[in-house]
Amino acid sequence: MTVDYADYVDAGEAVDQGSLSGKVAGGDVAPPVVAGVDYERILNARQEPQNWLTYYGAYDGQRYSPLDQINTENVKRMVPAWVFQAGTTGLIAGASTYSFEAAPIVVDGVMFLSGWDGWVWALDAKTGVEIWRYKHAVPFDVSLCCGNVNRGVAVAQGKVFFVTANARVLALDATTGKRVWDKTYGDVRAGESATLAPLVVKNMVIVGSSGGEFGVRGHLDAFALETGEHQWRCYTVPKPGEPGSETWPADGEAWARGGANCWITGTFDPETNLLYVGTGNPAPDFDGEVREGDNLFTDSIIAVDVDSGQIRWHYQCTPHDVWDYDSIGECILFEQDGRKLLGHFDKNGYFFVLDRTNGERVRITPFVDRITWGAITRDGQVTAKVYPDKEGEPVHFYPGPAGAKEWTHAAYSPKTELFYVPVQDTGATATRRRREFKESIPYWGAGVQVDIEDMAGSISAFDADGEEKWRWRNELPMCASTLVTGGDLVFAGEASGEFNALDARTGELLWQFQCGSGHHSSPTTYMVDGRQYVAVPVGWGGWAEGFLPGMLGAGHGSALIVFALPEPS
Q1: Keyword Oxidoreductase, does the record have it (predicted)?
Q2: Taking the model in full, what pTM does it have?
């Protein structure tokens, strides 16, 4: 059959979604505030507290701001200053899949914010007026295990960096939102994706892969800021013959589909020149018989030389994980008695403190009430007690696969010397189901049902010795990151929509605002023209069935709400 292409009508080019945003005329170019952001400024980010220059606010991961205009005495007067409505458009941004999980970045009065489905916005941080938007075309059939999400952007040298669900890292012009470069670093056909906020270190932007539930091999990658040229790759599962390979079966390819993805942003110490990153679960998640051994470097904290991409030391939190206890949680850097330490609250329910120069264990303590999967002694001995080891036989354990703390972040105040942890006290039942590995098909190895009753949550304050100083209790698990400030305030959102301010020293609830949708993001704070603001993305969803299935049908929302004290009349 001969086809006469002259009979076809030219459909034209796709419309740039940014041109349909209804922006204020002439407001499509941002001031060049990011041009002066370089490695030195990010190193000293806390010296300019009016800005939030990097994902955690600073390289140490503390999520602490010295700003104290809003404090324990006046926070009760805090009110909404402006709201940005992101909307819910997008092919795979369905009501049951997307979630607003980002941490807003602010540079000299301009905010940079990412959303699900390839969205990035530049906003006036004082008024909320949109300056520009970028929409990346994400294929409809990308394999995503746990929701259509993105956790934020990075900025430096006049560019905004972010990753997309189809495993790409992009650089945008920070003034216009136009694409500068675009690089692929994962194989979407194999089930790889990307969700984390990039981290700028020196002249590189560092990103990690997602997709452990599909049986992929995790990795970190570094790209040149200016050109996007690939600098190094660090695989987080060793191939045969490499150190750690003896912890995988000698025959077969279990290592090649071993997981250990790095899907949460790392922290960095310029003095050790090490990047501290948590790695994800092994694959399959719950069927350990097909991957006998400890399965390094899954469920581990790894210290990576930032210049070479080589792993210098590791500490495995859950050897041979069969509960889906990723160790992707943040590594908070702090000092105690002159010693350089790292604090990590793991999904398995334990708080690990390590010497960050060499990975030596300092102490381990539980931070949640119910832990039944096993036990870890203070000297680091791990004993598994309950796990899905027989085909078709249900097993119940605490914490469930979302963990005693999910990916959402704890905060640390150098003023109070306390950690503030969003705790989830929820169990789950797993029933092992052996399945053959097939590329890009979920590779869980079990059916899982998370409890919808008998659950609890809290914001708990711990010192570096693991002693709990106070606990603010909640009926539901706490599923959002905390933020602590120089005003001795801890900000924390609830799954039911409340945004709270607690006294950082006592845990007393001082202020609350109902945001209309659940919280699963990372609030940040900044100052413009002498006025402090607190910004929180609100949009419930994502993998809600994994951490709070009882609220799977709750209103989603898609707003950034920004608070401040009332302006003087």
Answers
A1: yes
A2: 0.95
